[in-house]
Every structure is written in structure tokens, then in C-alpha cells.
Amino acid sequence: MTKPLQGIRVLDLTRVLSGPYCTMLLADMGAEVIKIETPVHGDDSRAYPPFDNGISAYYANLNRNKKSMVLNLRDEKGKEVLRQLIKISDVFVENFKPGTIAKMGFSYEEVKKLNPQIIFASISGFGQTGPYRLLPGYDVIAQAMSGMMSVTGWPDSPPTRTGTAIGDVLGGLNCCIGILAALQGRHSQHHGEYVDVGLVDCSVSAMETITEIYLVEHRIPKRAGNRYEFIYPYDSFETMDKWVVIGVGNDAIWERFCKATGHLDWLENARFALNKDRASHKDELHEMVTSWTKQHTAKDVIELLRAASVPCAPIHDVADVVTDEHIAKAREMICEIDHPVEGKMHITGNPIKMTEAGRYTYAKAPTLGKDTESILTELLGMSAEEATHMV
Q1: Based on CB atoms within 10 Å of each CB, which residue in 194, 196, 261, 370 is the most buried?
Q2: Quick one: 250 and 192 in the same domain?
Q3: 3-state DSSP call for residue 306?
Q4: Which of the following is catalytic: 168, 196, 201, 371?
Q5: pLDDT tens digit string along 15-67?
Q6: Which CATH number characterizes residue 248's domain?
Q7: With a cut of 70, which residues of the chain have pLDDT below it?
Q8: What is the crossing angle of helices 166-189 and 18-28, to 10°?
């Protein structure tokens, strides 16, 4: 089946995580992604662990379905090849520090001269404008300056980053959304676009209601562990053997929860009648619910509450995730692909499912410069001899 982005060509000048995550999504959805890498070392993440048969699994996961082309953009010949590729491409993505790509001769203004219809996308720490624009930005910077770390952790713990590089992932997601919107805009308005994404902006956006607390109530939200500010019981609870989460999201669920646990006394207690009342008695309710969960195994708690349509789940470790029949198998979030060198390896699947486009197919990540010669000869019409001198 035809993938939705088939026919879209992307020049990917990004490296490490935020940019490659964005272009990974585009490649999965059918775009032809040509990853431009530096000679000898390529993307920095090629040297990041863990390694599978000498290949970085970090790199392989983020760069499946892409082509790798080696270009020395400090050399005029390399720059000219990139100019020719720009003329026949739809999207140009970079995640250098602001100003760097312009110094290389490929600012949006210069690229637009070569191809007025191109979608030019930049991911940086703080965006392309504002007083912080030239500061270096990493995922941990985004999590710190967005306020995310200030509300992550326990009341008595220091500010904590999330267990994954969520700032980078949010940057990649938002850049992908921006590119898709710009492609639609090009279709309807017949011009290109510059998509400017800052990691800090993306993390600030993801804070949503937490920020609204301060804007409305002038109260600075604090770390609250696994609790949710506005709803309770909505927390993690210890059982006889493992931890689970329970999410009593409204009054109807509270009624089902009390009946399922055999605690009609909780349901009849006026202090817990409405969600706002329960949210005001979090500590007391946590002790009460924990006194019940600790009498049962996690499996028993989950089965009982799910039978009553009460939202709940076990707290998986990664081993649980990759063997979960729903996540790993039914939803195909853990997939086997050909190893870039030999054998097979596993990657994380694409979370965006489509019916008409069919199942995702994942081509192995390219070895460094694997497609350089074919791109030069097949796309740019160079002779084999000319291409050999460029490689």
C-alpha cells in the first residue's frame, strides 16, 4: 500500500535525537529521507551505546528507513552537491546551533532562493529568536527551564528530570507536526515555509495545566510524586508484590471503585463525595487505598478493578514492556528488523497507526555513506567516475 508521505523527499542534516526522531517519523510514513552525515564519523550517535554487533542501537532505532550520504560541507564541492539536492527536495531539516547553518551558506533565505517551495525546519534549544537563542540547548536544559523538573519527583527530593529525554522527543514531535502542516500549507497556498522549533518551548507547552495553576491561582506547583494535582485517588499504590497505578478520574469511577473494593463506607463518607473533596484529602485516601492494595497481589488488584471498569495498570519495567502482548505484539511497538551488518535486531515501532496505509515496514539503518554514490548518480545524474571522486 502507498504510504502517506510517499513522494516527499527530506534532506536530513540533523544528528543525535531531536532531529533524527522527527525525520524517523517522516521516513516511517513513507518520505524519502536522505541523511547528510560528516565524513569518517557521521552522526555523533553512531558512537552511543548500547552496541549490537558493533552497531549503535541508539542510532539504528532513530535512523531506520533512511539513506546515508556523506558530504563535507566545509568543501565547496560538497556544498554544491547539497545545493543540487535542495532544488529537487521538499523538506530541509537541521538542528545546529542558531546561525551555524547560515555560516555554512544554507540559511533559509539562501535555500529558498534555490527552491521557493521548500519546507525548511530548524530545531534548537531556545528557538531562532529571543535573547537566549545563541545559548546551547540540550534535553536537560529544556526540562529545567520549562519548569518540568520543578514538578517531577517527590516532595522531599531534588528537582528531577524524567527517565527519558522527553524534551528532545517533544522537539522532534512538534517539528514533525510543523513540517506536515507546512506541507499542507504549501499544497493550498503554493509557497514554502520556515518551521522554527525550540526544545524549551515544546517542554513549556507540555506543562499545560501545571502552568495554568500559577496563572490562575498565583500558586507555584510543587513536586507531588506520582499524584495528580486535580484528581484523587490518582496515584501509585503498593501491593503485596509490585506497584500499580489507579486512576479514579471522576465521581462515577469512584463509586465503581468503592464497590469493587468492598468499601461502601468510603462511598458513604461525605468527605469523599465529590472529586474536589477527595483531592483535598489525598494523604488520608492514599493510606486507605494502600491498606487495601497491600492485602492483594498486583495481578489480583488489576483483574478486580478492570472488571469494574476502573482505570488501573501495573507499573512495568522495560522487560515487561517488550514482552507485553498488547504493547509489543498487538500494537507492534517492538519490531524485528534486519541488522545493519548481520542478523536481526529489535527497534521501537511507530506509534501512529493508519488503516489505509497498512502496516509499517522498517528498513535497517544505513551504514555510514551507504547511499552516497547512488544518490549522486541516480538523483543528480553524475557519472560513476564523478561520483567516485566525491565519495
Answers
A1: 261
A2: no
A3: helix
A4: 168
A5: 999 999 999 999 999 999 999 999 999 999 999 999 999 999 999 999 999 99
A6: 3.30.1540.10
A7: 391
A8: 50
Q: What torsion do the CA atoms of 53, 54, 57, 61 make, to the nearest 10 degrees?
A: -90
Question: Do residues 279 and 251 touch, judged by C-beta distance below 8 A?
Answer: no
pLDDT of residue 391: 64
Residues 293, 239 contacting (CB under 8 angstroms):
yes
Task: Look up the CATH number of the domain holding residue 381.
Answer: 3.40.50.10540
Q: What local confidence, expressed as pLDDT, does residue 384 receive?
A: 85
CA dist 133 and 294 (Å) reads: 51
d(CA 101, CA 13): 10
- Cα-Cα-Cα-Cα dihedral sign, residues 71, 73, 74, 79: positive
How is residue 220 annotated by DSSP? -
Q: What is the pLDDT of residues 168-183, one digit of tens each?
A: 999 999 999 999 999 9
Which of the 8 DSSP states describes residue 97? Answer: P
**Beta strands at 51-52 and 55-56: parallel, antiparallel or unpaired:** antiparallel
User: Measured between alpha carbons, how far is 166 from 147 in angstroms, rounded to an integer?
Assistant: 13
Q: Is 168 a catalytic residue?
A: yes
Contact assessment for residue 375 and residue 67, using Cβ atoms and an 8 Å cutoff: yes
| pLDDT for the residue 24 | 98
Helix, strand, coil percentages (3-state) for the chain, rounded to 5, are: 45, 15, 40
pLDDT tens-digit map of 105-138: 999 999 999 999 999 999 999 999 999 999 999 9
| Average pLDDT over all residues of the chain | 95
CA 183 from centroid of its chain's CA atoms = 20
| Alpha-helical runs (H) found in the chain | 18-28, 57-62, 76-87, 100-103, 108-114, 139-145, 166-189, 199-206, 209-217, 251-261, 264-268, 275-279, 282-293, 298-307, 318-323, 372-374, 384-390
Q: What is the total count of domains within the chain?
A: 2
Based on the fold, state whether residues 179 and 247 are members of the same structural domain.
Answer: no
